[in-house]
Amino acid sequence: MARTALIFGVSGQDGAYLAQFLLSRGYAVHGTSRDSEIASFRNLEILGIRGDVQVHSVALHDFRNIVQVIRQAKPDEIYNLSAQSAVGLSFEQPVETIDSILNGTLNILESIRFLDIDTRFYHASSSESFGDTLDGPASEATAFRPCSPYGVAKSAAHWLVANYRQAYGLFACSGILFNHESPLRPARFVTRKIIRGAIAVAQGRLSKLEMGNLSVARDWGWAPEYVDAMWRMLQQETPDDFVIATGRMHALEDFARMAFERFGLDWRDHVVQDRMQRRPMDIHYSVGNPAKAEARLGWKAKTLLPQIIEHLIEAELASAS
Ligand SMILES: Nc1nc2c(ncn2[C@@H]2O[C@H](COP(=O)(O)OP(=O)(O)O[C@H]3O[C@H](CO)[C@@H](O)[C@H](O)[C@@H]3O)[C@@H](O)[C@H]2O)c(=O)[nH]1
């Protein structure tokens, strides 16, 4: 019998790719957004699946609203991908960030408990919880040392999920995902910003790209592959948490160099640092150890940075033509 999934936060990058992935496996897919009447479901449109997802309006701070949508959709699997996701913005909107991430997660967990259903629950934890991974690639056993309001909220939500799993026996898993990119990323994230900037410079529409802190390094993966890992977690016999990453770290300067080189440009001639765009605190080194996901889920990142940059450039050029 066809299974049903409910995705909180279906309009974002991961929500759209996950909906596509689940539809391709025969799931009936329900998705929520703050106000589905006025929300842009552009990512679902780009993937050609807008008509295949049943959308609902859900405010995550409204417990009754969450109970209602779970009762309507009767999901076998629930995915929590909602809430504020920009780390930089979390310094300007700490209350909204912490409220949406923490209370949203708590309300979904409480709703599952209240309804006493044995739905499986996936929660989007984040590598931001680790802070700097100075002692080598972070695994599931690495301590959390978050350094942003977003990271603090994600850490608390992560432990809430673990607590509900242990205390109440919920089938609840957290994926601690490192950075994962795609053409569906909003341009406020650094990868899309650099790709767009390089193209604009190459086409003579921009002379200088203003950026924040360039002295950072990240573990960048390919978002469509990461939603597969989310699904695999919920197909396990027992619930658990997993780091999802490529295991490889690249300097942001190398990302910029590769993107500009593709157009025969030297990034150093076109990228300038703007102090105003720096965060009050930043993670310098971030890399994950995906060994547990590989061993237990049979999951491994296939698309690595040079291909990611190429895919992003191709998609950006195609969308402009
Ligand atoms: N956005 C942005 N970042 C810049 C810029 N210049 C330098 N950076 C640096 O580039 C790094 C990456 O920034 P983002 O692309 O905004 O991603 P993030 O902060 O690492 O967070 C993303 O990954 C997390 C882990 O998966 C996610 O949890 C989070 O929601 C988000 O997707 C950060 O160190 C940031 O300071 C700029 O102009 N814009």
UniProtKB/TrEMBL annotation:
Catalyzes the conversion of GDP-D-mannose to GDP-4-dehydro-6-deoxy-D-mannose. GO terms for biological process: 'de novo' GDP-L-fucose biosynthetic process. Its EC number is 4.2.1.47. The active site is at residue 155. This is GDP-mannose 4,6-dehydratase. InterPro entries: GDP_Man_deHydtase (IPR006368), NAD(P)-bd_dom (IPR016040), NAD(P)-bd_dom_sf (IPR036291). Residues 6-310 form the NAD(P)-binding domain. Transmembrane segments: none annotated. Its cofactor is NADP(+). Belongs to the NAD(P)-dependent epimerase/dehydratase family. GDP-mannose 4,6-dehydratase subfamily. Pfam families: GDP_Man_Dehyd.
